[in-house]
């Protein structure tokens, strides 16, 4: 469980005013001092994350946030960053104290509803103040569940964890309970999948990239077999391979080579297409690809890449993909690049958004970005599908929904 990547964990974000005990609650759940606590309001100045296992839910990521009533000099920026956490949270915990429900709490509840999040209100410091029935009735109307606790004493950890675990189990989002398939559903037990993995200058030394590793594991979990090969050896391999593969998966950079060298009766796809099912919405991404040919000179295109690697001369998002788009459209396009979580809050000026495969984002954050694009009538697709479209092979790499 300790090796589960953050993007595949249930992300539980803790919101509230300054000094309500958010960090103390995080520390209590984690069983260690993850976040700094103090009687001074505004001690938490940025998000703090703790990956842990919360049985029987499994691997989770606890996210501590700055108080949303922060009036300090940097308060506006801290609040902006805290609000961005709603984009990726799977469940929101609102920490308050007995009798306290005002504009801050109402804003959190409304933002959680906008993001379609289950909201669990944690009434902290119940050992120092009484909780009235009237207040509990109000919370019952504002949130999906209510937990009363004190997060200030380690002796109460077992009860706090048990209470929250029981509430979380009843409010797990459907997207977490029923994750879309990656690759295993495309293979029967005992069948063979060939994975074409280029090892270019951008490949991490000594290891494969996350989508490749996850595909291998998913295939093995479904009792199928996998064979990994570099792109320069694939044309030779496929001619003499016995048994023949039931599926070939490649990095999008070599999709045209894969299609040209694979017998037409063997299904092909790309890691990015597979991740469009796992993390995104393949149908919306397909529609986004159709908008490529409608681009005009000087149209703005957003290239969103969730990871923050150092770009190189062979970088897919900043070099190869823009070159392919210019060639496919014959237009001079205006590209904006958004690495990591520096995703623009205002996307209305863009004519097309091309997102990475989202291996570093959880499904919730990717779907929220897609929803924002759809709401603004902006076509959106992902790297691999855009590359396959520009190469004229998109119809040959799509897989069943």
Can you describe what's shown?
The protein has helices at residues 22-30, 75-84, 103-114, 133-142, 157-170, 174-177, 210-221, 234-240, 255-261, 271-278, 282-290, 316-329, 363-375, 383-390, 394-397, and strands at residues 10-16, 48-54, 58-64, 91-96, 118-123, 145-148, 192-196, 225-229, 247-250, 268-270, 300-305, 334-339, 352-355, 380-382. With 401 residues, the chain is of the alpha/beta class. Helices cover 35% and strands 18% of the residues. The protein contains 15 helices and 14 strands. Residues 36-44 have low confidence and may be disordered. The strands form 3 sheets. A 6-stranded mixed β-sheet has the order 2-3-1-4-5-6, with helices on both faces. A 4-stranded parallel β-sheet has the order 8-7-9-10, with helices on both faces. Strand 5, helix 4 and strand 6 form a beta-alpha-beta unit. It is globular, with a radius of gyration of 24 Å.
Q: Going across the biggest sheet, name each strand in turn.
A: 2-3-1-4-5-6
Tell me the strand percentage band.
Answer: 15-25%
- Mean pLDDT across every amino acid position: 87
Helix content class: 25-40%
Rg over C-alpha atoms, rounded to the nearest angstrom: 24 Å
User: What is the number of beta strands?
Assistant: 14
The chain-level structural class is alpha/beta
Low-pLDDT runs of 5+ residues are 36-44
Largest sheet descriptor: 6 strands, mixed
Q: Give helix and strand order, one letter per element, not per position.
A: EHEEHEHEHEHHEHEHEHEHHEHEEHEHH
Overall geometry: globular
